[in-house]
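Onboarding guide, step 5: your first structure request.
Type a short instruction followed by the sequence, for example:

Predict the 3D structure of this protein.
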Amino acid sequence: MKCIINGKVVLKDRIADNLCIVYGEKIEKLCFVKDINLADYEVIDAKGKYVIPGLVDMHIHGYLGEDVSDGKVEGVKVMAEGIIKNGVTAWCPTTMTVSKAEIETAFDAVRTVKNSGEYYGARILGVNSEGPFINPSKKGAQAEEHILRPDGDFIKKHEDIVKVFTVAPEVDGAAECIEKVKAETKVLISMGHTGATFEEANAGVEKGVSHATHLFNAMTALTHRSPGVVGSALASDKVSVELIADTFHVNAGLFGLVAKIKGDKLCLITDCIRAGGMPDGDYTLGGQPVHKEGIKCLMPDGTIAGSVLTLNKAVYNLWSNTGLELWEAVKCASLNPATALGEEAEIGSIEEGKRADLVITDDALNVQTTILAGEIRYNA
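The system replies with structure tokens like these:
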């Protein structure tokens, strides 16, 4: 058995100083050091640093030159091993609008890694299928020629690996698709890349949509007479929302407002592409050219194409640009996405009985150590 001492432990509702975390594969006990005999344990001294729950990235396309949509098993492994250095212990490899055959090849690659039983970095929860069931008018960096009519049977066919998928609720076939997936699977239904009106978005929510893909981006905006998809997502207690908190996709001045409105339903994501963790230069996304410069990734026509954000940096950006407590910001990248994905009983917070996915960070949330299911998988 092991234990972590001398840490500022970030719980789901507070920060506890000098709480001792006793763990094996799961967290066995939270107690004070005086209540145990340290000689009985393998001890990690956090030396006053933060101990946070493992982060959950539910929307990430690529990292370190690899892209999920390439459909390469080795690429998925590289990503899993790379993001664990950012404190991510669970993730949803995310596909985009490429050909149906390429999407299924990507599903197979993720399936292979997930079901291998071997360790490859952060644990895969399932695929996030962002597209191909979207509105061409809000395609963003997605390839229009591969956009398809929403098909609930396609999602059901792959429900063993698909954890969440995006659909534009206003397009032809979307209503039937949403109803089928809601009734026959446990897949999270997200609205995104959508030109829906406020009323059309609300109708989608009534049929089964309960999530919004990267709020504000690639959806109808909030105005006072046409609240759009943004208005629907913010107004509905049924809908959790993703936020790319890189300060480029969304102005940092809105972070606090969204957090205040959505509370436990705010999920930080990276939407990272293969340029993440790589030098500035030219890359691709879904076969389309993308140029990375600093935190910006743009197509030749100026369209934003994903991000190069890391999830620990997203938490820091949220925390430093709002009045949120650190535990509230951390929750947006741990317990909140875990809950949206139906995984909150196992992961997402530091609680007795949950998997020992733990991360030690400095005050700027730079990762020092990542522990996955009780084993150290990264040491800075």
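Each response can be followed by summary notes, for example: The chain has a mean pLDDT of 97.
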